[in-house]
Automatic annotation (TrEMBL):
The keyword Oxidoreductase does not apply. InterPro entries: AAA+_ATPase, ABC_transporter-like_ATP-bd, ABC_transporter-like_CS, ABC_transpr_PhnC, MetN_ABC_transporter-like, P-loop_NTPase. PANTHER family: AMINO ACID IMPORT ATP-BINDING PROTEIN (PTHR43166), PHOSPHONATES IMPORT ATP-BINDING PROTEIN PHNC (PTHR43166:SF6). It comes from Halobacteriovorax vibrionivorans. One of its GO terms (molecular function) is ATP binding. This is Phosphonate ABC transporter ATP-binding protein. The keyword Cell membrane applies. Transmembrane segments: none annotated. Residues 3-238 form the ABC transporter domain.
Length: 238
């Protein structure tokens, strides 16, 4: 087990109870998909896992250590193990693929280096390797805003890999892409999962994609966990 979510509650300052006593485990090497309607708490769950949000109560144990209460350097260290990509890619539009990927490099203290940072030859070699893994070899010097949506998401995957995460969180990574491009991005996520051994936790709402890519599924409804199991048994009404 790499992650244990235990009795997690998240109440936003406006009173919205986005996660209600949610518990589930994630095994090392899994491709876990979280499903649920819009507003069911999927995004909140991922944001609590990498400390973009704090839980209101409960524990999130990463490799046996509760990360919800860590602060400062120990929080940054735990966080460096947990990378994230988003629906809208969040690249720096006017910068090249190489610069965007390098911007995911962490310094030794776990802080993201500035986009104007000086990168070592080792960092550049690593960036080159990840650019190749996501199929963008030859596009190193192309500006991010000149790429298609699918290519931009692949840059975001390579950028997230620069911190050597053990877990990659993907928040609706294909929600703004067409079906063919969605498959391509999902295949690269699968490749990262299988070839690099990175555990993937991905929010998705297209059930056909869920059935094809998930090794296991967790379903949320109104902030509560309503299902944990095989993708074949998932229900259209969730
Ligand atoms: P999903 O990812 O499944 O669409 P979210 O986690 O984004 O669900 O949202 C769960 C619930 O929490 C929704 O009711 C949403 O409106 C609410 N919510 C999300 N983010 C915030 C926030 N920053 N402040 C207040 N309420 C929020
Ligand atoms: P997404 O599809 O990315 O989940 P949303 O429209 O649900 O987009 O949310 C966009 C942003 O607004 C997110 O950062 C979310 O946390 C925040 N948000 C969502 N619902 C609320 C809310 N009721 N109050 C405040 N912020 C919210």
């Amino acid at each position: 087990m790499i992650l244990e979510v235990k009795n997690v509650n998240k109440v936003y300052p406006n009173g919205c109870h986005a996660l209600n006593n949610v518990s589930f485990n994630v095994d090392k090497g899994e491709f876990l998909v979280i499903i649920g309607l819009s507003g069911s708490g999927k995004s909140t769950m991922l944001r609590c896992m990498n400390r973009l949000h704090d839980v209101t109560s409960g524990e999130i144990n990463f490799e046996g250590k509760d990360i919800t209460k860590l602060k400062g350097a120990s929080m940054r260290e735990a966080r460096s193990n947990i990378g994230m990509i988003f629906q809208h890619f969040n690249l720096i539009p006017r910068r090249t693929v190489m610069t965007n990927v390098l911007s995911g490099t962490l310094s030794k203290t776990g802080v993201i280096k500035s986009i104007f940072g000086i990168y070592s030859e080792e960092d550049k070699k690593k960036a080159q390797d990840y650019i190749k893994i996501v199929g963008l070899e030859g596009k190193e010097n192309v500006r991010a805003d000149n790429l298609s949506g699918g290519q931009q998401q692949r840059v975001a995957i390579a950028r997230a890999l620069m911190q050597n995460p053990k877990v990659l969180l993907a928040d609706e990574p294909v929600a703004s892409l067409d079906p063919a491009t969605s498959h391509s991005v999902m295949q690269y996520l699968k490749k990262v999962n299988e070839e690099l051994g990175v555990t993937v936790i991905c929010n998705l709402h297209f059930l056909s994609l869920v059935r094809e890519y998930a090794s296991r599924v967790v379903a949320l409804k109104g902030g509560k966990l309503i299902y944990e199991g095989q993708p074949l048994d998932i229900n259209e009404e969730w």
